[in-house]
């Protein structure tokens, strides 16, 4: 692939694949509403474009982390139902109301502030309630459920939804999943007839017992692996090509990169890529003689990263290409169908989420499709 002059690398985001992934998950969760989690700039793909594509595919419920993200979705998809996972920022209730954002309330302080605003305006504005069933992050404690029920009962307020979050859903047989499911059932019993949501991407794939009235897929929408130890059925959404700047020769015994922790054991041809940790490639994808690193796909072959990744540059060994060497200006695929997101993440000792949300580098973005698919 030859890259367009002046643009450096090129990040291609397949909105058609994003839409197909949502529809595939919607079929699995038949009987439950399928939302779309678009926090963190839609996992690095662009929140406005991704939200429009997901809406075109059929999504109507969206989860964001912050009010700013919620406002971005509102501007892109005016009729969206938007939940803010961070809950209610102190003093920001009027903003949520103006933007028609639903806070996911997770503390008594948040609840009181929201209820007071409802009393002040004489209107029951919608919100979700988040209960912590074992991850020890945001959420009402289980011991607070009766207090919450009593407080909203005094005012005749009913939440739009009761929710919690699974800690170990990426390992389907983990005992904690069943424990959390049972604890969530105990919470639900205190809020009869209120819709419930527990499943993220992995929970959705684990089984219908976790689906309830709404599922909240995130990473699976963007082509990432949700469940460990299983084939990933989702289509890749992101492809990243970066420019090859130069082909150089290294001799046996010479070192590559900062720190001199990679020594060539043969005469080698090396491709210098215009891409480094400033562009989202993690330094953990570096390699040494003791440990392999990430890969790039060049001229039909996977080529190993050698040496330490620097701010702007990454070195790849292309010796195995023989005489079929690339030319400066050609693109090397570092994420995409030939370098799967999760394979690259595994090589860096991390997860696909981190690679996706790091994609804020010096490259142009190209969107493919719009999410509209034939039935």
How would you characterize the overall build of this protein?
Its EC number is 5.1.1.1. This protein is of the alpha/beta class. It has two domains: 31-222, Alpha-Beta Barrel (TIM Barrel), CATH 3.20.20; 238-368, Lyase, Ornithine Decarboxylase, Chain A, domain 1 (Beta Barrel). It is 28% helix and 20% strand. The protein has eleven helices and 17 strands. It has helices spanning 15-28, 39-44, 47-57, 67-76, 93-99, 108-121, 145-155, 175-188, 201-206, 341-347, 352-357; strands at residues 9-14, 33-34, 36-37, 61-64, 81-84, 101-105, 128-130, 161-163, 196-197, 214-215, 238-250, 268-273, 295-298, 301-304, 314-317, 331-335, 363-368. The protein is elongated, with a radius of gyration of 24 Å.
Number of strand elements:
17
Roughly what is the average pLDDT, rounded to an integer?
95
Please give the count of helices: 11
Compute the separation of the termini in Å: 33 Å
- By CATH reckoning, the class of the largest domain would read Alpha Beta
CATH architecture of the largest domain: Alpha-Beta Barrel
Number of domains: 2
Main beta-sheet strand count, sense and barrel state? 7 strands, parallel
């Amino acid at each position: 692939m030859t890259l367009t002059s002046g643009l450096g690398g090129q990040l291609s985001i397949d909105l058609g694949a994003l839409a197909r992934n949502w529809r595939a998950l919607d079929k699995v969760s038949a009987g439950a509403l399928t939302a779309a989690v678009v926090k963190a700039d839609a996992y690095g793909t662009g929140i406005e474009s991704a939200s429009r594509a997901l809406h075109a595919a059929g999504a109507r419920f969206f989860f964001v982390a912050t009010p700013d993200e919620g406002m971005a979705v509102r501007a892109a998809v005016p009729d969206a139902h938007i939940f803010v996972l961070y809950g209610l920022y102190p003093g920001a209730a009027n903003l949520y109301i103006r933007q028609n954002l639903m806070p996911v309330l997770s503390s008594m302080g948040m609840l009181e502030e929201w209820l007071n605003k409802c009393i002040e305006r004489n209107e029951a504005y919608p919100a979700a309630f988040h209960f912590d069933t074992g991850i020890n992050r945001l959420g009402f404690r289980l011991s607070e459920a009766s207090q919450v029920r009593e407080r909203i009962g005094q005012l005749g307020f009913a939440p739009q939804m009761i929710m919690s979050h699974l800690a170990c859903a990426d390992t389907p047989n983990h005992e904690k999943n069943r424990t959390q499911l049972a604890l969530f059932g105990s919470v639900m019993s205190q809020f009869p007839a209120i819709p419930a949501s527990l499943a993220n991407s992995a929970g959705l794939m684990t089984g219908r017992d976790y689906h309830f009235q709404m599922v909240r897929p995130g990473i699976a929408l963007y082509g990432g692996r949700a469940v460990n130890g299983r084939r990933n059925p989702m289509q890749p959404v992101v492809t990243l090509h970066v420019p090859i700047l130069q082909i150089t020769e290294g001799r046996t015994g010479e070192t590559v990169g900062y720190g001199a922790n990679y020594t060539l054991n043969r005469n080698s041809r090396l491709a210098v890529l215009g891409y480094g940790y400033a562009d989202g490639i993690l330094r953990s994808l570096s390699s040494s003689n003791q440990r392999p690193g990430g890969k790039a796909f060049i001229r039909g072959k996977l080529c190993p990263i050698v040496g330490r990744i620097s701010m702007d540059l990454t070195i790849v060994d292309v010796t195995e290409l023989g005489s079929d060497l690339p030319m400066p200006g050609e693109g090397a695929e570092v994420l995409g169908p030939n370098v799967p997101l999760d394979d690259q993440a595994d090589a860096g000792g991390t997860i696909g989420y981190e690679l996706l949300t790091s994609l804020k580098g010096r490259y142009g973005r190209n969107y493919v499709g719009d999410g509209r698919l034939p039935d």
